Task: inverse folding
């Protein structure tokens, strides 16, 4: 009996919650999607236009304004976890010096006619856009938490190493609808490049931990 | 001469800005920008463009050899005081919600007889190529200086556009999973050293929207809101939407509605 009442309470709370936070666009969401898609040149290369496609995670995160209910969040996290792929040799720690470079590069992948990146421009992890890492780099963003002293604080157990790899490969495996990109899922970074960035976070000699 | 001086000033400020982060804390960088603003307090390079825009507005041009003085920006033909601040809005004659740029192009086509592709060819300036649209929008914007942004979006077509803009604001896609909301949905965040306001609140949207069009120091040019938003989409690694696309006007309607009540300070100066 008590359980039933509790359940009922939960359901109404959930309903009230969803009524409060209407999905963006409300009843015009579908039409807005069509309008958005119609805003681009018809003769754009196919691969440019593929950047407008949304997977289930993107769609759901948009609908919930980046804050999905926990149940839905869990489902997305599972889905994203299943996408993670590892380097063939199974080694998750690469060369921190390579990782240091990749973490700083914010260019690559810009398309369009006005200011595209030249062909072959390195695509980096752009971690400094959102995170503090090495102390000496002061031009860091604050969308994500500071990662300075990452391994000093967390230790460098195999578990933390794997966590760092997985997080960079697919951030949504842990936090559905996080603001952090899914670098491995989109093949923005290769598994090997991710191991270099993991080393940058984990190696005691890396400026992330040393300074 | 004045132009030369301003160029030197801008050059010095830009050099300062970009040398700053290497040596110093980010507060130093904000100082540089503050200093730069001070140096130009009564000489925003955009002011020159505003004067040029004023000239273009009253000059007889185009196949019909007519000025733009009868152009209706939403308050009646030729009425420009406060016009920018109440755009985008619904226009009966076109049955569309239009922003300042789409309306201006409409007037250049209907009143002056230009072809749309002719007037929009240089919708933004490049080194060595000036843009009439940039100049005209700077002039029209300045006519709203001190006026409150007023886009209540009460007409059903406007309300719908604002909603569609909200949809696009939260829509994620692309190889970095970006949406506008990721960079502009929280208080007090930075990307690298660039401060990002929360565009979903009146304060945040107001702080941003009141200063456009704006002279961008890093670009050495005035940017219109279309240019600003199209570039944000480029940063999101999406393809560029077409100039004057409805989705840009929808985003502008959403942002101006959120910013409604904020007093305009334009043309602005930005990083």
Result:
């Amino acid at each position: 009996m008590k359980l039933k009442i509790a359940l009922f309470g939960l359901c109404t709370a959930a309903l009230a919650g969803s009524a409060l936070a209407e999905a963006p666009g409300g009843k015009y969401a579908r039409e807005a999607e069509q309008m958005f898609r119609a805003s681009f040149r018809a003769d754009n290369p196919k691969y440019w236009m593929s950047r407008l496609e949304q997977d289930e995670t993107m769609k759901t995160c948009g609908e919930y304004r980046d804050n999905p209910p926990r149940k839905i969040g869990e489902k997305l996290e599972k889905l994203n976890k299943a996408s993670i792929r590892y380097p063939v040799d199974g080694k998750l720690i690469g060369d921190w010096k390579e990782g240091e470079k990749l973490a700083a590069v914010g260019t690559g992948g810009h398309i369009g006619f006005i200011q595209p990146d030249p062909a072959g421009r390195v695509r980096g992890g752009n971690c400094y856009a959102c995170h503090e890492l090495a102390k000496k780099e002061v031009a860091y963003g604050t969308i994500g938490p500071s990662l300075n002293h990452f391994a000093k604080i967390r230790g460098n157990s195999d578990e933390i190493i794997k966590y760092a790899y997985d997080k960079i490969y697919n951030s949504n495996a842990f936090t559905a609808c996080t603001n952090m990109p899914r670098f491995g899922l989109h093949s923005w970074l290769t598994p090997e490049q991710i191991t270099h960035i993991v080393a940058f976070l984990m190696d005691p000699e890396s400026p992330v931990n040393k300074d | 001469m004045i132009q030369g001086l301003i160029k030197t000033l801008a050059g010095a400020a830009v050099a300062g800005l970009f040398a700053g982060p290497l040596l110093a804390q980010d507060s130093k960088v904000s100082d540089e920008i503050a200093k730069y603003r001070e140096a130009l307090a009564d000489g925003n390079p955009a002011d020159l463009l505003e004067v040029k825009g004023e000239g273009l507005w009253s000059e007889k041009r185009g196949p019909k050899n007519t000025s733009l003085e009868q152009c209706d920006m939403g308050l009646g033909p030729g009425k420009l005081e406060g016009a920018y601040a109440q755009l985008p809005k619904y226009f009966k004659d076109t049955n569309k919600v239009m922003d300042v740029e789409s309306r201006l192009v409409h007037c250049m086509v209907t009143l002056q007889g230009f072809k749309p592709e002719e007037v929009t060819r240089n919708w933004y300036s490049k080194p060595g190529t000036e843009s009439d649209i940039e100049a005209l929008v700077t002039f029209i914007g300045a006519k709203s200086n001190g006026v409150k942004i007023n886009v209540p979006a009460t007409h059903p077509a406007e309300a719908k556009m604002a909603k569609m803009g909200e949809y696009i604001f939260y829509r994620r896609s692309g190889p970095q999973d970006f949406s506008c909301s990721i960079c502009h949905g929280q208080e007090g965040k930075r990307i690298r050293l660039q401060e990002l306001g929360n565009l979903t609140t009146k304060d945040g949207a107001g702080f941003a929207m009141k200063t456009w069009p704006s002279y961008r120091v890093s670009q050495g040019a005035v940017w219109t809101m279309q240019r600003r938003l199209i570039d944000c989409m480029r940063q999101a690694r999406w393809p560029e939407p077409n100039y004057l696309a409805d989705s840009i006007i929808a985003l502008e309607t959403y942002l101006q509605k959120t910013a409604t009540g904020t007093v305009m300070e334009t043309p602005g100066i930005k990083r």
Remarks:
- Residues 11 and 215 of chain B are 14 Å apart (CA to CA).
- Chain B touches chain A through 50 residues (CB under 8 Å).
